[in-house]
Design goal:
With about 475 residues, the chain is of the alpha+beta class. Among the domains are: about 140 residues, no CATH class; about 70 residues, no CATH class. About 55% of the residues lie in helices and about 10% in strands. It is built from 19 helices and 11 strands. Strands 8-9-10-11 form a 4-stranded mixed β-sheet, covered by helices on one side. A hairpin with a 4-residue loop joins β2 and β3. α15 packs antiparallel against α17. The protein is globular and about 75 Å long.
């Protein structure tokens, strides 16, 4: 661990506690890749949280997020205790301005994350596809983009990043990270050819007769052959005039989006599991001084509380509180081995739908609310299904509208279609126009999006001709 502001004594104590907590975690059955811990200043921690990675391509949108995060932190609405990156090894960053009890708790919390990341199927699937060295890969990609800026200029590179980052969630999680291009042609059976009769079939089987090789007719495949939801992959491979460095940027953003998806899709499970384990590890760490333990437990209570300021009911779910409460309920009723099976097999969709019970909904006072035009807010319902879907709705399709590339015309123009029926919502037409403008700059042909308005009426958004 490195540090500039925390006292040398506190650093040494944290090292000792961390070593013993890791041994306790192993003794209790946690299974994880090695974790490299590092103490960093708060401003660097904010940059990591905003950019998503310690080293990543530069873009103006990250600066906007940084300012937003700075305002939230200044108002007391947000505080970053740690950031952990799954991999082999895992990388964990702690704030050197945190107290010793807080960083002791965070160490235990990170070990819970590391156990989850190694054993959950989504995280494991990404590791199989991309390897376990995301930070090094991201740094290499950032270096290539810096080289592109030197070669082609900030304005051209930023235009490509505008488009790629606007489409960041538009991947197809059901397809592999590394996938082949569409086949150019497909066999077409001759519908008018008569079937072989019994004599013809026997004749072809006679000794000395050469097998008759059929050469079936082929037809050219349409592009895409079916609706393509992996827009980053499709544009990188089929944009008519994209240059190699532009395609490289799209594929770089796509690979990072695949990396972030398990974190997004398992947030409630993951944060709850880490919170369960930091609470348990602290409880069983009899080597911790009593006053440090009490301070750490106070920090735990602040992290997993269900309330907003001054115990007002929060209008958004705290994933730490919800996940922690669900894991405690599962382990209490079904045991730790059942919980480990759930960690392996589920994401937040299965976790919420299968294990957030009616009793737990009532205990946690979860409900669906609606805001009236006069500004009042009232409880709409606390039906189990309604609560489940209200929690999960923002997670559908990586939190983005479900949009597919539907047809590439012979003139190079592209048609996009919004699958609003399965999506269950419309699109922000103003934002859609902006995103299509970004796409049009790299596609360099007209791009249209077929969608619906707020009342379900058909709408077509078209990029400007360049």
């Amino acid at each position: 661990m490195c540090n500039t502001t925390t006292s040398a004594e506190a650093i040494e104590n944290l090292k000792q506690y961390s070593t013993r907590i890791e041994q306790l975690a192993r003794d209790l059955g946690l299974d994880y890749y090695p974790v490299d811990f590092e103490l960093v200043p708060n401003n660097f921690m904010m940059e990591i949280a905003v950019y998503g990675l310690p080293v990543r391509m530069r873009h103006w949108s990250f600066g906007v997020r940084y300012i937003h995060q700075l305002i939230r932190q200044g108002m007391g609405h947000s505080r970053i205790f740690e950031v952990m990156f799954p991999g082999d090894p895992c990388r964990a960053y702690l704030v050197n301005g945190n107290t010793l009890p807080e960083n002791t708790l965070v160490t235990a919390h990170v070990l819970g994350h590391a156990d989850f990341a190694k054993n959950n199927h989504l995280f494991a699937h990404f590791m199989d596809m991309a390897g376990g060295h995301i930070l090094e890969q991201a740094a290499a990609r950032a270096h290539r983009i810096e080289t592109a800026i030197e070669d082609f200029g900030q304005e051209r590179v930023e235009a490509v990043l505008d488009a790629a980052l606007a489409l960041e969630p538009h991947i197809d999680i059901n397809r592999e990270l590394h996938r082949p291009l569409y086949p150019l042609e497909t066999p077409r059976q001759d519908e008018n050819a008569p079937p072989l009769d019994q004599f013809q079939q026997r004749f072809r089987m006679l000794p000395g007769e050469k097998p008759h090789t059929l050469h079936p007719a082929t037809k050219r495949m349409s592009v895409p052959p079916q609706p393509e939801y992996d827009l980053l992959w499709f544009i990188a491979n089929y944009a008519p005039e994209m240059e190699g460095w532009e395609r490289d940027i799209f594929l770089a953003v796509r690979e990072e989006s695949y990396y972030f998806y398990p974190v997004f899709a398992c947030q409630i499970m993951n944060e709850g599991w880490a919170s369960y384990w930091h609470a348990r590890l602290l409880r069983e760490a009899d080597f911790l001084p009593h006053d440090l333990y009490l301070s750490a437990i106070k920090a735990h209570s602040d992290v997993v509380r269900p309330y907003a300021a001054e115990r007002q009911l929060a209008l958004a779910v705290n994933p730490y509180h919800l996940g922690f409460s669900m894991w405690e309920d599962i382990i209490d009723k079904h045991g730790l081995e059942a919980a480990r099976r759930i960690v392996k097999e589920e994401d937040d969709f299965g976790f919420i739908r299968n294990y957030l019970t009616r009793d737990l909904i009532e205990k946690l006072e979860l409900f669906v609310y609606e805001a009236r035009e006069d500004g009042d807010i009232r409880i709409a319902e606390n039906d189990v299904h309604a609560v489940h879907e209200a929690i999960l709705a923002p997670k559908f399709n990586y939190g983005a509208p479900r949009i597919a590339a539907n047809h590439l015309h012979v003139d190079g123009s592209l048609q996009l279609v919004h699958d609003h029926q399965s999506d269950g919502r419309g699109v922000d037409l103003v934002r859609a126009e902006r995103v299509l403008e970004y796409i049009g700059r790299v596609w360099r042909r007209p791009v249209t999006l077929h969608t619906v308005g707020e009342r379900g009426e058909a709408r077509v958004v078209t990029s400007k001709r360049l």
